[in-house]
Amino acid sequence: MxxxxxxxVSKFNSAGExxxxxxxxxxxxxxxxxxIHGLIxxxxxxxxxxxxxxxxxxxxGKWVINVLPQILEGRAKTIVGQLGHIITSLKNVxxxxxxxxxxxxxxxxxxxxxxxxxxxxxxxGCSYTTSNVLKEENNYCAVSCVFMILTRFLTEVTKxxxxxxxxxxMEQCGTCCCFPAxxxxxxxxxxxxxxxxxxxxxxxxxxxKTVYREIGAVxxxxxxxxxxxACQHSNDNSGKQWSWLEAFKHLLLSPDPDLTSVVASHLLSxxxxxxxxxxxxxxxxxFYPAFRIFKKKYxxxxxxxxxxxxxxxxxxxxxxLGKVRFAEEFVEQEGASENILELLKFPEFSTLSITVVQTxxxxxxxxxxxxxxxxxxxxxxxxxxxxxxxxxxxxxxFLTTIKKLQGCFKEDSGNYPIxxxxxxxxxSYIGMLEELRLYWKSWMDLCLLSPQIRAYxxxxxxxxxYTLLVMFLQHIxxxxxxxxxxxxxxxxxxxxxxxxxxxxxxxxxxxxxIAPYAGNPxxxxxxxxKLEKVVESKIGLRPICDVLLRSSxxxxxxxxxxxxxxxxxxxxxxxxxxxxxxxxxSKF
Length: 588
Known about the structure:
Blueprint: H1 2-10, H2 18-42, H3 45-57, H4 63-67, H5 73-102, H6 130-135, H7 142-152, H8 160-173, H9 181-194, H10 197-214, H11 229-236, H12 246-252, H13 257-270, H14 276-301, H15 304-320, H16 324-332, H17 336-342, H18 347-370, H19 377-380, H20 382-406, E1 418-420, H21 423-449, H22 451-460, H23 462-476, E2 480-482, H24 490-514, H25 528-536, H26 541-552, H27 570-576
């Protein structure tokens, strides 16, 4: 049948009855695949492998590339489905034989298999490595050989319907852990750049099942699972087997902003489940190089797609830098800290940038303490001085804004109302509050994480913190109204400003308690009368009580603590950047 197939396909171009010949080719190929499937289920493995080798060797190892294009589209899907069934049957036979070899029982009907179906075993051929693929030899793992047939047909010229059927078959049958990921990922990433939404979803599902779980990126081994030789080899590897991750960098840099968001969200969703080696490769091979390119483009052209790409990369940093070894290597990268600090001037990036800066500060402080130099924060950590400058600038902005709001009121006029008659004035006021919240909350987080930073804060900012707290309490008791024409959702805007007031107030109170100003021995207790006025204002008793309860529960660490952040949602961050970008990742 194989020889007949080869002869018929070779004569296809010169045949007169094209449709009839396609039907004939389909009938033979379908019979071949059904025969192979039946032999898998009936013959012992040693007797089956010679027939399987004949099947794989036909058309010099390029069976599917020569045969499937000659079959009608709907029938080609049937052959693809048959190949998927062959892979599933091969895996089932292999896992049963491996279990019978390891289990001491005579009957195995009620046994639980300790080996996953995708683990390699030499019973169906030796490991299918990248070097084997280049040699085009076919006496290797039977599962990987058939899966490679499907992989080779995923090209740019493959019809979308057949490509989608191949993806579904790959998702259902899976592959072997010895299968080289590089050729599969290369084809899948090219397919994502040209496919429709449904195809992209299928590509991600195939990646999750095959590349991440079965080929070994995901670390989900339990104590009872038996690892095969291929998995043990990949675990001992230094990470070279993940070199194909660079293909995802090109997807991130794609001109299609939707593709950038999809790929970034996909990588962040699987990152927590992957091995540390894979996460490290993802950080330094995909996200960091893409970040530098996005940042440079955004500073030059201010395009929306570059902004979204930068947000996606910063989101990845906030999660992946939660590992000390990654953060330390990231800080040592040339220009890494400088690139992040430069983004603080952009409101759309400041929230994410400040979390990365916090991580960099803690890492550098940890390294100084490890080298027995914990008291050189002023010279050793330039990021701290940058945050001091940012806080001082935010205070100046606050004082300037308050002075403008006083208008014609005298300084001693007491509780003067604050009226916004232009929308631009309100936007400027909200921007000032968001800046105050960002920097003072970042200092609160840092002081809670490290006693050395609390001492640094006491030396440089405690007096400014206490002074601002007094002025801020006097400010928030005043009534606020918006009388600008054409402004909608006034109540919602006012509620947002009240929430900002409370967040800033909480940060200032916590800092005044855990890193107090030496010239004020009474601390926050001396502000009792001002707090009572705040309670009597529009803010009310309950919100103030919540702030005081959270402030009293702040527990400063006696040792250096490493900050951790949840996995961010890239799509949410990109949407919020269009308005206020006030997503704050809080640990409390």
